[in-house]
Amino acid sequence: MGDIIGKVITLIIVSIVFPPLAAVLLIIWAVQFFMSASDVVIDVVSDVSKRNKQHHKSGSSGSRRKRVVLDGETYLWDGTRWYSETSFLTPPASVVARLNER
What we know:
The protein is about 65% helix and about 15% strand. It is α+β, with helices and mostly antiparallel strands.
């Protein structure tokens, strides 16, 4: 908060003494702000990606993963549901019933 107040005071003083410099300062601060905001977004995305990888390694309920080839398609069991290895989509109910038999 103190950083923002300092920037506002600096901006007011600079805009009185040399207005073009005030515009340059605003642009620089805006770029710094958006760059720091994008770092936060990148950190959040990488954390979610890590969690997804851990989820798929361990299985969502802690049970062992299964891999079944059925009609030329490979399906994975993550402890909760079946999904296609290539498209990550849940197969139709008729295919799920056949996978559950295995």
